[in-house]
From TrEMBL:
This is Lactose phosphotransferase system repressor. The keyword Transcription regulation applies. It comes from Nocardiopsis endophytica. Repressor of the lactose catabolism operon. Galactose-6-phosphate is the inducer. Keywords: DNA-binding, Repressor, Transcription, Transcription regulation. Signal peptide: none annotated.
């Protein structure tokens, strides 16, 4: 395959999947990592992609947000490990806030039985999941429901979040970096997440390593606002140190 053909194929893959990884592309096309990096640099110079750590995303996808079922299948094993590790951040009892997201849903699935917890959430799937569980008191935040994420947002949700104060908030994000903080594509989701961060004594961010360096449209928090970042072992140790230096304790699952 000629270089131009390979770059077209890489761009098609990026547009289809939302992101491409250097290691996977090198294996797929049977070329060196350096060749793939040169291809991605050429695509970036043409304005087709933006380089992020370990790969690239298509420019038109910077504001793109996959639907919940699609997100649930991405990095599934890593998200399972993150959710397991996040259990150590739960209080023995009290009130926790679970943001809408595929990784926070996995945490909801694993909430320990018999522990007295009030679970506040703006996620319809999470509320349905924990409803009726022994020891769990679910409180569903109301508001306009976004079909893409099944999250309640808007004025009603914000008014509730202004009035609550929880022991720990488990927050999801579409992107995180030391430079830009925590980002998401949608302004209404960003405002809800911003209020969640303010409403918590401790903030725990759950984000797999592909979110690192993937800055999105709206910033809703700085890394200094986060007490703990739970991610997976696929994160480059140098990036883990960089994120940790910006504020949170970093846990690699």
């Amino acid at each position: 395959m000629y270089g131009e053909e390979r770059r077209r194929a890489i761009l098609e893959r990026a547009r289809e999947d939302g992101r491409v990884e250097v290691a996977a592309l090198a294996e797929e096309f049977d070329v060196t990592h350096e060749t793939v990096r040169r291809d991605l640099t050429a695509l970036e110079r043409s304005g087709a992609v933006r380089r992020v750590h370990g790969g690239a995303i298509p420019i038109e996808r910077i504001g793109f947000e996959p639907a919940l079922p699609q997100r649930d299948t991405l990095m599934a094993a890593e998200k399972d490990r993150i959710a397991e590790a996040a259990l150590a951040e739960l209080p023995d009892e009290g009130t926790v806030l679970l943001d809408a997201g595929s990784t926070t849903r996995r945490l909801a699935e694993r909430l320990p039985p018999g522990r007295e917890l009030t679970v506040v959430t703006n996620s319809l799937p999470i509320a349905a999941l924990v409803s009726g569980r022994p020891g769990i008191t679910p409180l569903l935040i109301g508001g306009r429901v976004r079909p893409r994420t099944q999250a309640a947002v808007g004025g009603w949700a914000l008014r509730v979040l202004e009035e609550v104060y929880v022991d720990a908030a488990f927050i999801a994000t579409n992107g995180v970096s030391a430079e830009r903080g925590l980002t998401t594509p949608d302004t209404s989701e960003a405002e809800a997440k911003r209020r969640m961060v303010r409403a918590a004594r401790r903030v725990v961010l759950l984000a797999d390593h592909t979110k690192v360096g993937d800055d999105r449209f709206v910033r809703f928090a700085d890394l200094a606002d986060v007490d703990c970042l739970v991610t997976d072992s696929g994160l480059d140790p140098r990036l883990a140190d960089e994120l940790g230096a910006a504020g949170p304790r970093v846990v690699l699952a």
